[in-house]
Amino acid sequence: MAPGYYSARITTEAEAGMEPTIRWPQGKRCAVALSFDLDGESPWIHRDPALAERPLHMSMGAYGPKTGAPRILKVLDRYDLKVAWFIPTWIVERYPDVCREIVRRGHEVGHHGHLHEKPFFLQGGAEEEEALLVKSLDIFKKVLDLRPRGSRLPSADPSKHSMELLKKHGFIYHSNLMDTDLPYCHKTQHGELVELPTAWCNNDWPFFGFSAVPPVGHGIWSQEDVFAIWKEEFEGAYDEGGFFNLMGHPQVVGRPSRMRMVSRLIEHILGKGDVWIARPIEIAEHYLAQR
Ligand SMILES: [Zn+2]
Fold this sequence. Notes:
alpha/beta, binds zinc ion
């Protein structure tokens, strides 16, 4: 039986037993998306409002917009890469300058909740979720003069309403679910919403995210071990002509050691010579156009 949360509303090629090949542009062999969820303090506060009074946790979160993001921007510029930044609008209001700099450098900005509210856990149902979405869209317009067309929901944890609401409000894609390797479409009442699938193993948080009290994370991994995992995931996607979707958090991956490792990964990917590294919105639009 299909899982209840999306039965009859989502059909995928994978469910039909097929994983069609996607033709990537300009004869490229595979596609790569890099994205950074610029959470700042928001997930800590959303997890427990008392943490807003903990200088330690607020500083851990602030490392993202204050220190990690500028370092990441510098690395991306070095390789002339344009990526996506998914930003809670509470952070857009708190750190408008770094957000404007992200836009100025040609990166895509996507939706990531307001104060990192996980849709699946909202008590107020579709109404509360839509009100938060509209609030975020208003803040993006007011502070950055843009309208995001992509979303990574906080903690990549949608509710049964999320896809309908995103499509209703003009989104092209979201990047959350973990059931396939290749992009596909969700059917909603308002049309199709592209999924750019994710995976925990291509996310920095499980390897590096840490707090002693409250206990969060699984210890701190060596960046070399994580490099081995990400490189091999990329190699698999490259072999199959697939899609490699890497998710980072500036407060986590923005450390010097980890960005040196990410730089080596970028150099490895670029060294292939036939990989399409693009903003997720470009990958979603390409997928829609070539089907
Ligand atoms: Zn997040």
